[in-house]
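Morning F.,

Quick status update on the modeling queue. The single chain you submitted on Monday has been processed. Sequence for confirmation:
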Amino acid sequence: MTFPAPSDPVGLLLPAMASALAAMPDPAAALCGAVFEHRLTAALDSPHAVAVSSGTAALDTALAAVGVGPGDEVLLPALTVIMTAAPIVARGATPVFIDTDPDTLELDYEDAHAKITPRTKAIIPVHLWGRMGDPARLWDFAAHHGLTVIEDAAQAIGTSRAGVRAGTAGTAGCFSTKDGKILWTGEGGFMLTPDGSLAAHARAHRSHWQQPPAGSAPLTRIATNARLAEPLAALGTANLQRLPALLELRREQTRRLTRFLDGVPGLHALRPAPDEQWNHYAPLLHVGLPRPRAFAEHLARLGVPNSTGSFRLVPCDSRPQFYSPQRPLCLGAARILDHTLAVVLTERDDEAVIDRYAATIVKESATWQP
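Structure tokens below.
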């Protein structure tokens, strides 16, 4: 089977870049960014979109807009990358790591409940590998404890659960458009929100409070520069036209790889929940072989890029910046990462690349020694 071909990126992307470059230099230029935001709201069914310079900036902007600051605590899963926790620390708040159920990849709400304090202000669910938890359960938990929900949907564009799109289940949804994401701009990100006041606050925050929301004066708050450059916004708008095809390509890439690996001893594909429409961001395989993390690292050395083997992904609470011997580690998150092979894909990975990955995994799993 041949993969579906997304529309010619050169034919779409080069004219978009040329148009943006033709308007430069213009320090006040914002047309491409405004168009990108408008197209995002239409494509992702959200009232407001705020484009920023990275996924990290999207989280920082959302945290600032909802008022997270010094003394506050923010719940987030240990099953995440350090980029989710860094903006919390940058706001002067404290990240509080909660565990994940290894059988479902859902947040461990009992653990989350036990870690609630009077200082807990928000919760950040992370849709790692594009997988999304149950939004109704998230809403119930957040409402019961009076928490703001900020989604880290960096890898989850195109995913939905129970009819709720990733990034629209809370007060704000944060995405990355770094090169390698399904929707990419080289570097960049954006925030979705249903709240117009929050969007206005976010736009002010990303540009040193130069264009403040109603009731505030320019440059009266300390903010930041997190604007998305105009040429990158133009890339985003062009790539949005390709998004349905890019999502279908990623689904087919994942299906092809997991189909080749079906029935291989020691490996089985992780499936989405019955009500989850997963974007198939990364083929996910449970590794039942001895020393599963070492197996992932071995595959990475042989040219099969993956989260734990290539990027050494570990639970965030075990990193030296956050580890404390006084706090129990999130063992469910560690178990998930140790036993999950998450293969890293891009739109450039054609049938030959996927087949090579599959052949390598099959061969090495058959000869892997404890």
